[in-house]
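Field: COMPLEX_INPUT
Field: COMPONENT_COUNT = two
Field: RESIDUE_TOTAL = 588
Field: MODE = joint
Values follow.
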Amino acid sequence: MLEWLDGDPLNGIAITITFFISLIIGRHLGKRRTQGKTGGSTRDPRLKLLLSFLLIISITLMKHWYIPAAISIFAVVIAARKRSLHAYSGKIIFPLVLGLFILLIQSLTYGTQTLVYGYIQFHPEGIEYGMLIFSRVVASASVLILLIMATPENQILESMRWFRVPSTLIQIMSFMVRYIKTFSHEGEKLKQAQQSRCGFPENASFPEKMQNIAAVSGLLITRAFSRSEDVYRAMVSRGWSPDIKYPEASVPLKRKDIITGIALFSGIVTLIWIDMLI
Amino acid sequence: MHISDGILEPQWVLFWYFITAVFISAGLRAINKRIKTDPAYLARISLIGAVVFVISVWHIPVPVTGSSSHPVGTPLAAIIIGPLATVVISGIALFLQAFIAHGGITTIGANTFSMGIVGAFSGYLVFRLLKNHTSIWFSAGMAGLVGSIMTYIATALQLALSLNPGNVVYYWKLYSLGFIPTQLPLAFAEFAFTGYVIQYLLKAKTSLLETQQESPSGNFTKKAIIMMLLILSVITAGAYMGYLRGGDNMGIDTVVETLAAPDAAAEGIGVELMERLGEPLGFGFAGILGGLVTGYFWGGFTGKGQRRDN
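Field: COMPLEX_OUTPUT
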């Protein structure tokens, strides 16, 4: 067990230093994890949004399915480690179905060579192209889902000003984010109230069902209209005016974030380069 | 139908971003102009936008299929807050929807184009054209139906342009046909949904609608539109069944030419038009001409026009 003591002492020094440094880093990471400070969520949201956008663009530039497939697997592993596999699988279903639809259409129609299985005729070129699109869709969606998991919605909205998004757009967006949850909850309450008054019966005809939904929707729209007057009064009482100028977002990126950004950007460029070399 | 990230090629991502940016900047300019005269407008469109977002993710029953799906919602929004403001609202809604993995970040431009621009403007145009001739609920319903169908046709075009640039028209038809089984019943659901909501708003709060109901000018327009929809349904259903049975969209031209009139030489103004404009535009031109002439002399055919004059 201690044979290395008889040999080159350098081995012993190396293994001791690396072991204890790793031990300290591991302990530190473990403590951060238990305190809920994971590396992903402490990064600047502007950096995460920009890098995710660049990674998704680079995925669409790829000409082989291997790297997008590897990114998808990596995303599944991260989701599993974060114990968010259920949320991940719920969100990936829609892009997965769309990807499969395109894979099917391309396999059946695109290309000149044919492969016959029973009554169905496939095209190898179409299968290859469809697989590429499918893997791109799943990989891009996976990146987006990880971004959502690691970044709260309000942080993303805050970073919009830094990207020079017009202030009117940000104001409308902020209101919408604020009131989507309110109206969603209110709509559910209205539905329940209607059900308790014998609305939405199981055996209702299609026009009856549509009339019920439309009544709830219409009521919600009229409520939104009335509430907007109150919101406007609240805005004015807090000093809002149409000509108000918002201060430029001047919080600079931290040095740590800049270094991480450069490293990850280099990684993205490397992935594109590898894809071109294959 | 939201296009996900990874489907469109980068040049098409940029192209649809550019087109959408033009419309969004026009929409923002219109909103800012309106806010200067009516400051409460900002809160109003934001809250109504939030409601339309909520409603558009509710599941509505879809006829025939027996399932449920969510409406496009942009034709309804366009009727209530106008098409330009709808483009801005739908752009924001699609950005927010990207964070529940509906659509994507790189495809916001393309999705806003199909839903916010094509869906809203086509629906609004239909509503404006019909509202003076038919009842408001029917006009709104037609706006919902046309807006929904146009959205899916635009999405199919976007997919064909990006994925199969060598054979766009063929793949445009193919993707459109692929959407028919799920999206055509949904378009009819959107018809009922939009019509009923606008009817409710008309009863509950007329001031909310930017337009007022005017007296309908008889059942002629309604009957003509119902007839058009019936014929369109028969054609699309026939084309879809033909496609499923292995047809290649050849049509009956070749069959007629080879079997019924093998020695006929095609010539004349119609043939020239088809050659110059391409078949779809040629048929469209013929349809406009035929419709205008028939509509103009309709009173003479039925005798109703003469009675009214007398």
